[in-house]
Amino acid sequence: MSYNTQESHPNDLDHVVGFDGSFEDLAKSIGIMRYDLVADFIDELVQEIDLLADLYIDPQSSQQKTYDALSGVKESLHLASNWIERAWVTSEPYMLKLPDGNYDTSKHPDHVAGFGGSLEELARNITQMNPGSIVSFLDAFTTDINAQANADLDRNHPKLASQLYSASEALYSARNQMQLASKFCADCSKKQ
Known about the structure:
This protein is mainly alpha-helical. The chain has helices spanning 23-31, 35-54, 64-91, 119-127, 131-154, 158-191.
């Protein structure tokens, strides 16, 4: 998908189209998937944030600050994806495989419950929300991954917990950068 600068970015959306629950519910539905799929989702989110950032690339305008902040979001999300991928490498040997070679999805589904589309569509729908709502989603996602890290630490899985803590720190950084982008977007709107 590409955003057209002639069309207004649907900044008025405060929910994820196609998902009826809260951001917390969505974060849990994403976080419970296998970690390889969580990493794939974050990678899709990076691509969509990249498209969004392209709307603001203009070194001669105040929008450049928004672009720079969104670039920070991408970098932090990329780091979070790398940590989640490491968590997958750590946890994958313990995943139950069925006789047909597929993973058992009873505990860790291969889709986002409550959303009928692909991970790419979900990422696109998230980036079509207003920046403040994206911040709220990232907040909920950070909280969920951090809670998983706490649970793994309690289960005496320190390596996995450490990887998830690192992922949640990167997600929190993405959230903070998105909050900056939100502020800069608001400032740009006031000047127009």
